[in-house]
Amino acid sequence: MRVGVYTGANHPVGPALLEGFRSIGAQASPRCSQYHRDEVEGFDLVVVYGGRAGARVRQCYEAAGVPVVTVDWGYMARVNTREERETGHYQVGLGGLNSLPPFDCPPDRFKALGVRVTAKGGDPEGYTLLIGQVPGDAAHGMDREQMRRWLAAMAAKYPDVRYRPHPLGRIELPGVPELTGTLADALAGARLVVTWNSNTGNDALLAGVPVVAHGPNAVYADMCGETVPSVQARLAYFRRLAYAQWTLAEMRAGVCQRFVLDHLLPGKAPVKETKA
Fold first, then answer.
1. CB–CB of 52/138 below 8 Å?
2. Above 80 in pLDDT, residue 94?
3. CA 230 to chain centroid
């Protein structure tokens, strides 16, 4: 199998993916997304890093019938900063951002995270927690003004709103009460979380707080609503989510790539014990 790995210069995901693919016998070649000029090479599989830089590469290859895997920051115990590149998880999905395995997954990877799913959390008499996001993020594509207008519309829709700006892309909402403490504290007082497609939605579902996402590409879109889904439904979702994210060490070892080739591409679930 010939695999093209398109990443930015000097990003550790590229070498990790190449090493892992080669360790399982694939012929993997590095490419730089920045230098792609719509050419389609003879790859059987393409991997791109980043929802923005890799989007054009993905579109070109998918139009040619070549499957494309997208890698970006993950969901739980995720990479949030450069310092967490070696320890955190990256999302790995067939197609674009926020693509989960289309089948039930075993509980082992979720269990290994040590994360608990709370049956019922928040405060049913509490506020609506409005979540800000970084302007220009490829996950939503809105610039600062578009994001501000959406946030203002949501603040007007929910009279009990409390707003939590994103620490890396703060947008002011004059007259709207703010919460600037920890996310855990903010969720503890919330009856509902409203967001476009922030990863905070996953934190809310873990904490037993219902979430409404207005972005159609939120990874947890099927879990949205003003009533939190059952623990069993959320466990099934988070098990799939855990199989949609991998560490650099797992990429170097080829474990991530083996899952892509054996399960994502054929759409075939792993055969393992699935009881909690």
1. yes
2. yes
3. 21
d(CA 229, CA 221): 12
* Separation CA 148–CA 79 (nearest Å): 26
**Distance separating alpha carbons of residues 85 and 102, to the nearest angstrom:** 27
- Residue length of the chain: 276
Q: Are 129 and 166 in contact (CB under 8 A)?
A: no
pLDDT tens, residue by residue, 221-256: 999 999 999 999 999 999 999 999 999 999 999 999
| Closest CA relative to residue 140, chosen from 101, 180, 164, 169 | 169
- Per DSSP bridges, beta strands 45-49 and 27-32 are unpaired
- pLDDT band of residue 274 (cuts 50, 70, 90) is very low
Q: How many CB atoms lie under 10 A from the CB of residue 170?
A: 12
Tokens of 46: 């393409």
Residue with tokens 């603040």: 155
DSSP 231: H
- Report the SS3 class of residue 94: strand
Residue 276, pLDDT score: 45
Which residues touch 157 (CB under 8 Å, ≥6 apart)? Answer: none
Mean pLDDT across 165-180: 86
Give me the chain's average pLDDT, please: 92
Rg (CA), the chain: 19
